[in-house]
């Protein structure tokens, strides 16, 4: 890894990473000339009825950011799930027995949360004025390597269906990508990452906080020949990482695979 990026650390990798993801986002924010660290400007608001200095009297007044309205406990129709509905859906989908038996990505009790989203209406409910609101709650149980999806009826507070699949690997959450980076940094195969980070920043890399990481699933033999150490990937939850120094260069870690189920690291090729 270190030899690959010895001269031009991260420059070529950034293009490759973006090409693999197929997406790139750029955003620019232009602040007023007098803007300070707080995001406010040094210009005093105009007195009532008096235009601000240098402002066209015919121009509309500056925009005002209003506080968000009070969120209700329950949404209506196809409204996004409210914070209260999100909490209730997750609580209903994870009864005490599951929370005690399941394990998250760090090995602690409770499953690893993935997504909670509004479920589609059923065909028979299409004409109802106020159909039941349902949520789909998905999580990964590292104790059994199971991908669990639960349908919760938020109107009746009932769990209507639970489906557990093994060998199905949805995209990893940010928390899983961060834990993968933590395992990689602590592993002997993370030596190149640590060396490149020190070359880029002059500091030692002891944890994932200085890195921006994005994880993507590695399915082992389903993606081609997998080394023996990675033969369990697919049934196990394995990820590869796009790794970038925050406000700095990319570091190529794509050939390293972190098995989050076994908490081991191996190299492709």
UniProtKB/TrEMBL annotation:
Renumbered residue ranges of the record's region Disordered: 37-116
Keyword Transmembrane helix listed: no
Alphabetized SUPFAM superfamilies for the sequence: Amine oxidase N-terminal region (SSF54416)
Feature: compositional bias, Basic and acidic residues: 76-93
Swiss-Prot/TrEMBL keywords: Signal
Residues of the signal peptide: 1-27
Low complexity bias (residue ranges): 37-49
InterPro entries linked: Cu_amine_oxidase_N-reg
Protein name as annotated: Tat pathway signal sequence domain protein
């Amino acid at each position: 890894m270190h030899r690959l990026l010895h001269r031009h650390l991260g420059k070529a990798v950034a293009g490759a990473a973006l090409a693999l993801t197929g997406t790139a986002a750029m955003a620019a924010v232009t602040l007023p000339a007098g803007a300070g660290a707080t995001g406010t400007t040094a210009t005093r608001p105009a007195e009532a009825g008096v235009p601000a200095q240098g402002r066209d009297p015919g121009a509309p007044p500056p925009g005002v950011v209003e506080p968000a309205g009070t969120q209700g406990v329950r949404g209506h129709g196809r409204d996004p799930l409210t914070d209260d509905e999100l909490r209730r859906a997750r609580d209903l989908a994870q009864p005490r027995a599951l929370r005690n038996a399941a394990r998250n990505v760090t090995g602690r009790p409770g499953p690893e949360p993935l997504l909670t989203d509004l479920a589609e209406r059923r065909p028979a409910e299409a004409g109802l004025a106020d159909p039941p609101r349902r949520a789909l709650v998905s999580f990964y149980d590292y104790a059994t390597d199971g991908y669990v999806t639960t349908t919760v009826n938020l109107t009746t507070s009932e769990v209507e269906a639970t489906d557990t699949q093994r060998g199905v690997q949805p995209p990893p959450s940010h928390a899983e990508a961060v834990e993968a980076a933590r395992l990689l940094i602590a592993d002997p195969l993370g030596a190149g990452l640590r060396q490149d980070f020190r070359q880029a920043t002059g500091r030692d890399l002891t944890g994932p906080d200085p890195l921006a990481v994005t994880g993507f699933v590695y399915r082992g033999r389903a993606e081609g020949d997998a080394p023996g150490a990675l033969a369990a990937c697919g049934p196990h939850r394995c990820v590869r990482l796009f790794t970038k120094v925050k406000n700095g260069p990319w570091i190529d870690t794509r050939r390293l695979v972190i098995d989050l189920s076994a908490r081991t690291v191996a190299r492709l090729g």
